[in-house]
TrEMBL record:
Natural source organism: Salisediminibacterium halotolerans
Annotated protein name in UniProt: Polar amino acid transport system ATP-binding protein
ABC transporter domain segment(s): 25-259
Coiled-coil parts of chain: none
Primary localization class, coarse: membrane
Gene3D superfamilies: P-loop containing nucleotide triphosphate hydrolases (3.40.50.300)
Keyword annotations of the record: Amino-acid transport, ATP-binding, Cell membrane, Membrane, Nucleotide-binding, Transport
Subcellular location: Cell membrane
GO MF, one annotated term: ABC-type amino acid transporter activity
Similarity remark: Belongs to the ABC transporter superfamily.
Length: 263
């Protein structure tokens, strides 16, 4: 009798430990209001290391605010955000360090217009991380190669297409060696013919095992690339499932209604 009990409790404990290790991000009860407007309401979210989570939902449902709370561009009102098991609080943690763990890519690129493509990529590693210039340049060139823009290193952003700009923005985020990449509608500002090249770059990243949270209206990408897809409505997570099940048989009425409009 003693032996099976021990095995049980041990395996339970080990399972817990493995889960804790596998979840790079754990959010519990996250809430955020702007004035009297509640924008995020009791959000629970687990993200496994190396997985891709797509976040979909109508405009105004709180997707951007959620991403911004995750990397502390907005401060949550309540709830906990754990990274690798460690609860992160604005009071006790250096938020600049935390933000370095989370690369963020925005709809509107935000490249420095007066810097070349390579200078855009090496700026933060040198200024924020104190990397020496030669190393930063070597890594920057490698990252530009990775996003297919090695030959644009010395060009200025204004000479690039939107898709190329966004790939530079991705390289720039990667240059900080983030543990998680957050994408907020990275292709929404692009002409349709330029969307594919950015999604391909993101797919490559996913294949390499980067942990990614992607807010997107590209349902094809969510279906094909995301391990899980999550639907948000009015600041709440309505439904979350592995992407195949999510799209093949959504369970909640509100999810069905949303998907019927966008698919
Ligand atoms: P989504 O990205 O899904 O379109 P957002 O997170 O941008 O949604 O916005 C959710 C709600 O929060 C919206 O009603 C928006 O107007 C409001 N909101 C977002 N940021 C702010 C802010 N800084 N101040 C006040 N209201 C905001
Ligand atoms: Mg948004």
């Amino acid at each position: 009798i003693i032996v099976p009990e021990c095995v049980n409790s041990c395996s339970g404990f080990l399972k817990g430990a493995v889960n804790a290790l596998a979840n790079i991000l754990e959010v519990r009860g996250l809430a955020k209001s702007f004035g009297h407007t509640s924008v995020l309401n009791n959000i629970d979210l687990d993200v496994q290391e190396g997985s891709v989570l797509c976040l979909i939902g109508a405009s105004g449902s709180g997707k951007s605010t959620l991403l911004r709370c995750l990397n502390f561009l907005e401060l949550k009102d309540s709830g906990t955000i754990r990274i690798r098991g460690e609860a992160i609080e604005a009071k006790t943690h250096n938020l600049n360090k935390i933000r370095q763990k989370m690369g963020m890519v925005f709809q509107h690129f935000y490249l420095f217009p007066h810097k070349t493509v390579l200078e855009n990529v090496i700026e933060a590693p040198i200024q924020v991380k104190g990397k020496n210039k030669d190393d930063a340049v070597n890594e920057g060139n490698m990252l530009l190669e990775k996003v297919g823009l090695a030959e644009k290193a010395d060009e200025y952003p204004s000479t690039l297409s939107g898709g190329q700009k966004q790939r530079v923005a991705i390289a720039r985020a990667l240059a900080m060696q983030p543990e998680i990449m957050l994408f907020d509608e990275p292709t929404s500002a692009l002409d349709p013919e330029l969307v594919g090249e950015v999604l391909e770059t993101m797919k490559d990243l996913a294949r390499e095992g980067m942990t990614m949270i992607v807010v997107t209206h590209e349902m094809g990408f969510a279906k094909e690339v995301a391990d899980e897809t999550m639907y948000m409505h009015n600041g709440e997570i309505i439904e979350r499932n592995d992407s195949a099940t999510f799209f093949a048989s959504p369970k909640e009425e509100r999810t069905k209604e949303f998907l019927s409009k966008v698919l």
